[in-house]
Design goal:
Its cofactor is Zn(2+). This protein is α/β, with parallel strands linked by helices. The chain has 5 helices and 11 strands. The strands form 2 sheets. It has a 6-stranded mixed sheet with strand order 1-2-3-4-5-6, covered by helices on one side. Strands 7-8-9-10-11 form a 5-stranded mixed sheet. The model has no long low-confidence stretch (mean pLDDT about 95).
Length: about 190
């Protein structure tokens, strides 16, 4: 089960996806709301926190979650203060009941990761791709439009039309033909 614990939160935050199963994981913690109580509404324990990237809106609740559940955090770059354990490009990571391929996808931020479970048809896209072909900002520190386009194309070349769910860093998850949104983002990022 995948539940966005930040859904309905009015503060500036990212989405934060609680994935329960064999390995109960919080994908991003969000910021500026009580993530701990939202997690506790669904589960008693967490096995890990996995970060798509370390912008403040995605990691603001890391310390509170880490302290409350005595869990470690995982992400691409252990030089970042919120990342205790590294996930390498193309490493397999267990999230919930499925194995996900970690894809290093810079362009929005250097340490950005996407996670794709081929067997389940699920993609966690972070701030790389959003609904309706929107794509991550490149006007922040470490932003790079050419790298972003390469990363979107990498995801496009990894997933296929059987993709059934795309969970994004902001806005609604895409559960109706998410592959089309990735294709659209690939084209749009070249135009704007």
């Amino acid at each position: 089960m995948i539940h966005n614990i930040a859904q309905g939160v009015q503060a500036f935050t990212s989405n934060a996806f609680l994935v329960s199963g064999d390995r109960t994981v919080l994908v991003d913690t969000g910021a500026n709301f009580d993530a701990v109580s939202h997690v506790r509404d669904d589960v008693d324990e967490l096995d890990a926190v996995i970060l798509t990237h370390t912008h403040e809106d995605h990691v603001g609740n890391v310390e509170a979650v880490r302290d409350a559940f005595d869990v470690e955090t995982w992400g691409f770059d252990t030089d970042q203060p919120w990342v205790e354990n590294a996930i390498a490009d193309e490493e397999t990571v267990r999230i919930g009941d499925d194995d996900y391929l970690a894809l290093h996808t810079p362009g929005h931020k250097d340490d950005h990761l996407c996670f794709y479970a081929e067997s389940a048809g699920i993609l966690f896209a972070g701030d790389l791709i959003f609904q309706n072909g929107s794509f991550g900002r490149t006007d922040l520190a470490e932003g790079d439009r050419d790298l972003l386009i390469q990363s979107i194309d990498r995801v496009l070349g990894t997933v296929d039309e059987s993709l059934s769910e795309m969970h994004v860093g902001h806005g609604p998850s895409v559960i109706d033909r998410p592959y089309d949104d990735i294709e659209l983002a690939s084209r749009a990022a070249r135009m704007y």
